[in-house]
TrEMBL record:
SUPFAM superfamilies: Folate-binding domain (SSF103025)
Domain of life of the source: Bacteria
GO biological process terms held by the UniProt record: iron-sulfur cluster assembly
Keywords assigned: Transit peptide
Signal peptide: none
Native species: Gammaproteobacteria bacterium LSUCC0057
InterPro entries according to UniProt: TrmE/GcvT-like, YgfZ/GCV_T_CS, YgfZ/GcvT
Entry protein name: Folate-binding protein
Amino acid sequence: MSSTVTNSELAMKTVARPRAALQLRGSDAAKFLQGQTTCDLLALAQQPAGTMISGAHCTPKGRMIFDFSAFFNPDAEDELVLLTAPDLAATALASLKKYAVFFKVEISDVSAQWQQLLVFAANREPLAAELGAVQALGEQIFTVTLPAGAALPTQLAGAAPADDSWAHNQLLAAGIAELCAATSDLFIPQMLNYDHRGFISFKKGCYTGQEIIARAHYRGAVKRRLALLQASGELPATVQPGAELRDSDGRAVGTIAAVGAAQLLAAVTEPALALSQFGVDQQLFDATASALVAAAE
């Protein structure tokens, strides 16, 4: 896998990360989400304030509708906050409300109340818990979630601003794919390696889509896994999230999850890792593919 940030490249960089925020408030908030998401929200309730957990809400067929990071609001009782991609907010809200009618929980969009920063740092030491909700996305990539309008913590005040494009490509190089509107309902969690990133609890019990996800885990039936494709030149305009990836003979070999500058993340078949040419909508490009999880895993 390509390296992300090197110590010599930066001491610390930050950039605002657009996120939608959904609030679930009520005595059944955690109980409701426990039956609708891949992660263990009841276990999260036992963790210190500011602890974040990642998960996904899936269809009955195990396809992810939206992914998220969640934390309990330390300043409000029985209140969970989910952060997801902005273009998935309406879809996420509608899908959760569909299942919430028999629970004591109110779900609303509170995106205006929260902000999130991406932090690129050599280590986590400067990111003390008092910063807010802190989560590691990779070895040197973190998020810090704060109330909207809150002053930048002193620990981050001296950080250099990161360019949006640079930050996005760092995420891709680290193998971090996230859902967007174009990729909703296309992947089971394992296709994006979410089982290796702590998004799934295989001990928590039943939730929507659990049967399919557990079967893929215990029977080793994940036929496509996330890979990093490094292109030798500029990518065709047809290379977009959600597009079907094909070999030079037109056979489907994967689905694109995220696209950056001359690189992309796609859930591909194992034979696709040996290819040197790929295509989208009959537009071919040269690229090398690297597995992000060993084939035996």
